[in-house]
Amino acid sequence: MAVRLPRPHRDDVRIALAGLLGGLVLWGLGLGMRTAEEPNVLWPWRWPVLVPLVVMVCCEVLRRQRPRTVLLVGTAALALDTTTQGNIATLVMFTDLAYAAVLYSPLASARRILWMTGLLTVVGTVVPIAVWRTPEAVLVGVIIGAVAFGPATTGWLVRNHRDAAEAARLRAEQTALLAEIDRTQAVTAERARMARELHDMVANHLSAIAIHSTAALSLDDADTTKQALGVIRENSVEGLAEMRRLIGILRDSSGDTEPSAAPTLDGLGALVDTARANGLDVTLDTTHVKLPAPVELAAYRIVQESLTNALKHASPGRVTVTLAQRDGTLSLRVTSPYGDRDGPRAPGSGAGLVGMRERVALLGGTFEAGPESAPDSPDSGSSRDGKIWTVHATLPTTLGGTE
Prior knowledge:
The chain is of the alpha+beta class. The chain has helices spanning about 10-30, 50-60, 65-80, 90-105, 105-130, 140-220, 220-250, 270-275, 295-315, 350-360; strands at about 280-285, 320-325, 330-335, 365-375, 385-395. The protein has a five-stranded mixed sheet with strand order 1-2-3-5-4, with helices on one face.
């Protein structure tokens, strides 16, 4: 199986070509770092200079893909270059290999290369001084530091800046992603809140309109029709007022769209009177003091939706609404006859129960809704088969419980 060599980076190719061109120009001009008469020059001819030059050029091409390998090969080529007349281009390209090895190698390898070049610089300074005992011996360490440790240190600094920039970019992307998630969740929560408000404010009036319009169309009695039309008009006006309040919440502007105060438990009496006008036999029993606004709004909407459901689905009989405050909670219970009606008096979507459950969950309370056996009492309002539909919610009345 053939091994596919990595494709060199175009910048590395340019660096290699520049190094080759510079080395050939220097070789052609006869400019070397050493003369043929020096004792360490084992190859006094000019052509051996080209061998380490070409090897170094090949290493430059793969400086990103194989940084550690080309550093080893480049070190051997530099050692070979010291036995010839030498070429400054070969030395300069080796410094670039040391720089690239620290910049592109894995972190552990880059750290080892940095320490090794530093140790080599120290050894190259101390040992010649100890052996030769001349000031000129320091130049050996200076040269090693300039050729190996200096480029490696530069690569380490550039690597740190690159990694810091990448980390900052990732943090910025994560921050933007979290901000988008928060925005999406906020929009979703606001849409759910407005859906609950729209349903709770309008469904009661539209249900009454649907029921009384059906009665007006089905009964051939002028007085009944007139009474039904009066109820329809009253619910239409109230529904329009509620819609304007909702539009005011959405727009928060002046004029007739200015939002009014949210309903409170003080309005339960008027809410029950409206339910009675729509044909429900409702009794209200409430004992409570002033509560936090979110608690009062939720309790009001739950009672409102429960009466709307009773208007649409309950069997003939009494509907009871009971509110009691005790031990830091508000207990709300609405019961209505259940089980005798063949179908609803007005169509429903089931969103009312979902909205009530969401309101209670947002306040950290508990919610239950469903049929249960009625107590043995003439005022229980149960149907003939002894079943009642009960909505029971428990809401915390402290501010900490409304978070």
